[in-house]
Fold each of these.
Amino acid sequence: MICTTLPRNKRVLVRVDLNVPVHDDRVMDDTRMRLIVPTIKALRQAKNQCFLIAHLGRPKGWDPHLSLRLLVPILEHLLEESVTFAPDIKNIPDTALLKGCVLLENVRFYPEEEANEVSFSQHLARLGDFYVNDAFSASHRAHASIVGVPAYLPHAAGPLFQQELKALQRIVECPIPPVIAIVGGGKISTKFGLLHNLLKKTSVLAVGGGLAHTLLAAQDYIIGQSLCEMSMLDQARTFLKQVQHHSCTLLLPIDVVVRTKDGTERVCEVKEIPSDAVCLDVGPATCQYISEAITQANTVLWNGPLGRFEEPPFHKATEKIMHTIAEETQRRGMVSVIGGGDSVAALNAAKMDFAQFSYVSTSGGAFLEFLEGKELPGIQALR
Ligand code: ADP
Ligand code: MG
């Protein structure tokens, strides 16, 4: 069981996701900051003092361009109250003197965070009397602020964390069959864990994007100059053999959009890929049969663009599939869950309204690891 009751009248350490894109010391997108506002406001309304713990980027030691100080004015505006910045986590003045909301400096400036050092966790824990994790996206990391601190304090999962967990459990634990998963993206080496787990959970598994090339090459198709991981061919063959032991139907591309040597684009069947061409999207026939499979499904999981969507016209299959998922979700209440850093970027690039889907996860790595069937350290720490 995970406690979901938020405290009252306490000093609360709240692990939040403030990992926003920053460029030239400016926040380029404040979505993540806006998402945590209801959590903090609810905690503040219940008369808690809040210590916000978060990371920004991947600093190697102290880095002024990754300081969370940058976020203070934006947070104050969003929270409609003043926020005190604590520039040194290890040297915080008497917490009783700090009122309201306190933002601690980037927790990853301290190597003890990633090393999950006991003394660092204990130090953090002493700042409060309750711990709330509302950063699902960081919960695949066994870091001090994720797994260390809750060992020393009463703890609960925050509302965003709970929402994400519920949405993912709905896909993995008791989905409404038939379930179709659509997996795309770049390298198959990063997705084998996901593919293997989905074989057990789905009736249809459609694979597109760069991943599909390695599976096609493992079946001796010529894939030209397309993205392919030759070192993964054996694993790809093992995966293809495993498919036969499951009741899951694997859908691989039957046609692709290639860029030929002279720089032109055209559609061709997978058995006719020119040896000097690069496959950059799945073709319209493939799109059509993935769409048909979606219309038969009651639950859809999508991760990974089906083509190099950043470079039109190779965004077409990805866009067509997201529109089909949105339409089916709206038309008949099909359950749809979408996640992955680039998949969310593709939704944004196509200006899709996230509310058209059952759930859109912005948790990236944590989302993928959960779907691989792993118990995330941050979830375990709250049990
Ligand atoms: P996510 O972040 O959603 O899990 P990935 O990181 O696995 O997705 O993959 C996204 C990347 O895969 C994108 O940058 C996209 O351009 C690339 N990609 C998709 N299809 C192809 C392809 N056919 N050839 C090369 N790159 C591709
Ligand atoms: Mg990615």
Note: Residues 340-342 surround magnesium ion (ligand 2) (CB under 6 Å).
Amino acid sequence: MCFQKRNLHNTCAGYNLWLENRCETIAFKYTRDYFDSLDGELYQVGYCRNEKGQEIGLRIDQTLTQDATGTMAYIEFEAMGIGQVRTERSVAYIDHNTLQSGFENADDHRFIASVAKKHGIYYSRPGNGICHQVHLERFGAPGKTLIGSDSHTPTGGGIGMIAIGAGGLDVAVAMGGGAYYITYPKIVRVTLTGKLSPWVAAKDVILKLLSVMSVKGGVGKIIEYAGEGVAALSVPVRATITNMGAELGATTSIFPSDENTIPLAADPDADYDEEITIDLSSLEPMAACPHSPDNVKTLSEINAMAEGGRMKIDQVCIGSCTNSSLADMMKVAYILKGKTVHPDVSLAVSPGSKQVLTMMAENGALSDILGAGARVLESACGPCIGMGQSPNSRGISLRTFNRNFEGRSGTRDAQVYLVSPEVAAASALAGYLCDPRELGDMPVFFMPDSFAVNDNMITPPAPPKEAGEVEILRGPNIKEYPKTAPLADHLRAECSLKVGDNITTDHIMPAGAKILPLRSNIPAISKHCFAVCDESFPDRALSLGQSIVVGGSNYGQGSSREHAALAPLYLGVKAVIVKSFARIHRQNLINAGILPLEFADEADYDGVEQGDILAIEDLRDQIGAGERVTVKNLTKGKSFETKCPLSERMKAILLCGGLLDYTKANLKK
Ligand code: MIC
Ligand code: SF4
């Protein structure tokens, strides 16, 4: 096998792009034009009318999974009974559950490795790096469609891919050759003008956009970057920006690709649903304050609020799929070289991939970082997902990551601020939140002409002829997909939990070193469902048998983890009634056969309390008929209307009891 049939060097980026098997020309212009061109390309079930709000199916060229969502995705893929994957390229990464403090994670890695070998999937071994960083370096290619069972899959938009985060079951269906369905998106053009000032970074660009659009401003939208400011932005810069488009709730984000790879750009006369302009020259270093990525302030604003005008810090973590490229690491090494990390600060650095770490070792940057006293971690998600490095009690932690949800670091009362690598490194030395512009002139950072390519940690699948011989290695932690049933005609159930706005998937199904090893064991992981909000929820829900959860707006923001739907499914949750949903979570609920209802009048949210008995009659008919579902609150003696906009395909999925049953039924046909 050759991983370097064409090893193009994108000078804009310094990334080696593996473009094996790609077609000579790609005949589409992306975003608006791309979606308009879908008619006729669609296959499997469904239809495409290309109207806003309609569901459309995308043909998927590539898929990626990571281990924390991958075990379930492969259990589902196996349950569909399809042999070899039908994509151009599918890759299974091990990067999340790398802390092996028991047998579970190691067993899951072996399971994924064996499934990959059998079914035609490339396997990126633990230590090879974070899925999005490695995919960008080795597999991504402009113009390809990619879905991944991780919400930060849009990182690929940095090189002109249509890259979308999805639930594991959707990825399993795409691996089997099925289309991936999204709501026909609105397109937002973000025009970048001017040029970033020294020490102002990609992170500041996306934080600025988050401050303008908020964590729900991107729902149902694709963010397309344009303008004269784009040309000077390298691929790592672009990838940081598209990566954190997930925090806007956007379906994906995309930059044009350049003539060094395959030039793709929107037509000059393309029209947009929304336009935003950001003058790069006007930006300054910023941070997202606890506990939301859109709680953005400038460093001077934050310091002004702190005692003595300087916010003291306890910890700095540099890495994650947002900011762990070689370009980022070189800046960090430059700042740390010859200095020592402040005695009150713990600095952890996790380079994004084996390629990045190897090159840092070869060019001396690693010794500069080690010399300053950093704790160098393996190339994996690590602290970003609470796999180690939890801060001290009430600790202030600066992180170059993308999410600062409450409790996500593993310390409930920690205060996490999201910053650029430049701010992180300067602050690690200073002991307080430090503006890197205090460091003086910024040198020009050159990227090498070529990159250290060594794919010895990517295991190719078995040749199809030998696939039958490959044994699937299943550890005792791997349990089956929860039981499903066709949608009942009448539902009478208690409201087992009422929560507020912006509930994240980290609230619904927390992660961290203790819980993540249970990702392939739904009965066990369900015991932690909603633990951040109410520890008694799992027992209550189980004892009720069936129940309904009520929530506020942007419910389910954050991760793509379908466990945030599968654990409620296992606990008997039949419907979730909220003010509004985040995109991937809503889809995951439908895939799990759980009704996603939205209050037609948000004021009705106030009229429901935990413990109320709710009833829905003629449910199958109401779902089949259209958009409205009437809910009776038997305790309060009142009724209220809910919205449930569903495509015909979604209706069929819900009536069947979920996407797995629906797909199996269709495959039989
Ligand atoms: C995250 O950043 O929250 C994760 C962990 O990568 C998740 C996936 C998961 O929960 O496994 C995501 O972003 O989708
Ligand atoms: Fe991993 Fe963090 Fe990126 Fe999620 S956000 S993929 S946990 S590095």
Note: Residues 68-69, 96, 150-152, 165, 385, 403, 511, 558-561 surround alpha-methylisocitric acid (ligand 1) (CB under 6 Å).
